[in-house]
Each structure stands twice: as C-alpha cells, then as structure tokens.
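FORM 7B: Structural annotation worksheet

SECTION A. Query
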Amino acid sequence: MSARTKKRGAVGYMISSVAELYKVHPQTLRLYERHGLIKPSRSEGNTRLYTQSDIERLEIVLNLARDMGVNLAGIEIILNMRERMNHMQEQMEQFLHLLQQELAHGVSSERSNPPRGAIVPVKPPEAVSKPKGRKS
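SECTION B. Predicted structure
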C-alpha cells in the first residue's frame, strides 16, 4: 500500500490503495464521504488521505452495508448513535472518577471534622467489641 505523510505526521493512505484493499470502487468511497459516513483528511495537494481511524470507520460502514444490508441513511444514524454513546460513556467515566474523588475526600474530611449544627446530631462511629466470654 502506498502511504503519504500528513502535516501532523500520521500516515494516510490514498483513495486508490484503500479502494483496492477493500475491493470497492473509489467512487463508492467518494459517495460515503459526500454522505458524511467517512471523513478522510486532505494533503496540501487536496488528495484524500485515510488514516487508521478512517479505515476502521470504513470497515464499520462496509460491514453495515455489505453484511447487514443497511442503507446509507441507516448507516448514518447508526454511526451517529455510536458516537453519542461513546461520548456519553466518556462523560459517565469522568463523572464516576469525580464522584470517587469527592467520596474519598468527603470520607476523610468527615472523619476529621464531623458536621455541626445538623438537624439530627451525627455521632462519630464507635468501634463495637464482642462481649467477653461468647464465642462466635
């Protein structure tokens, strides 16, 4: 496969190489681009360059189209939903991380500074010992 280097230093594959590799006509790749299903970058000479992430997305598009018979509108909906789900997953992971930090901080500060002036007085937890003479 022939490869070109983009401005950012990542390797990009030309449309002819990608078309040959995946046994699709270059016009099909251009059609997918017009529909927004793939978004290859461009070189300084305006040549389409497909990065590894573009190729991975193309594989999903081809799988949906060839193997599952999904039309272009359906593929667009599925890809948009995947992106939204990935974004929500990232947000949930950030939220959980923040929550864990807050809980860790709250537990340590609560032990050192019990709340004052609460409606219901809060007592620090006491250690419970087993009564002597009993076996568990």
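SECTION C. Observations
Residues 24 and 129 are 74 Å apart (CA to CA). The chain has four helices and four strands.

SECTION D. Sign-off
Analyst initials: ____
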